[in-house]
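We read letters as residues; the fold follows as tokens. A sample entry reads:
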Amino acid sequence: MKRDFELIRKMVLMIESEDHVWRHEELNIPEYSDDQIAYHAYLLVDAGFAIGQDSTQANSKVVQYDIFHLTWAGHEFADAVRDESRWKKVIEQIKGKSEGITLAVLTQLLIAVMKMAVGLN
């Protein structure tokens, strides 16, 4: 399954919005399948953006993760992606590039746009 930065953004902002443990069944985003959400919950934990736990049942075919909270890095990412116009601007910049883009590069682009918005070059 491919990594989807739009889904990661939506999940980080959703997790940040409420202070409680997000059980795997609560992580619902209508345009994404349970498999996609579960995989990306795992990626959030693996990337260090969230603290969570594998809650996959022995007989389940789908990986399931419960998310306890965002980490410092997760909150930093939330701050970088929160502004919709900034997000769209950066996504437009990277659209159509033949190579993939890493999370580090995406974050650097978002930070560069943030710096420009506050007058830092």
